[in-house]
Amino acid sequence: MENKEYLYVGRYYDTDHNYILKIGTTDDLKRRAYEHNYNYRKAKTHTMPRDEKFEYIWTLPLSKYNTLRFEDRNRQRWIDENFGDFIRNDRFVFAEKPARAIIKIRKEYEIIL
Asked: Mapping DSSP to helix (H, G, I), strand (E, B) and coil, where does residue 22 land?
């Protein structure tokens, strides 16, 4: 049986109260959330405050090849549509929380934020 990976969208608020969205892939959601919490608290920009935590808003299990392909496609679509300000590591910054995000695989998934 093929191992599944997850395509995910997660979020946190930074020290300036910006809403941060992250699109990514992982084979272990719990471990990856721990890594985001650790790394974003030490980030030079859009730092996560100590009392904040990274949370998943949406996940979908797929094959490893598909998670990477759909992560790249959706990240590029968000960049092309000016959906927030893109910063490295696939994070998107918003001064105010958007109402929704759209992920397109074969169909569109509307994520209410």
From this structure: strand
Distance CA 111, CA 58 (A): 7
The burial of 71, by beta-carbon neighbours within 10 Å (0-12 exposed, 13-18 middle, 19 or more buried), is given as buried
| Residues constituting the chain | 113
- Which residue in the block uniquely carries the two structure tokens 């094959």? 63
Tokens of 17: 């109260």
* Contact indicator for 84, 102 with CB cutoff of 8 Å: no
Joined together, the tokens standing for residue 43 give 């980030």
The confidence score (pLDDT) of residue 64 equals 87
Residues 44-95 pLDDT 10s: 999 999 999 999 999 999 998 899 999 999 999 999 999 999 998 789 999 9
- Residue 33: both structure tokens together: 């959330």
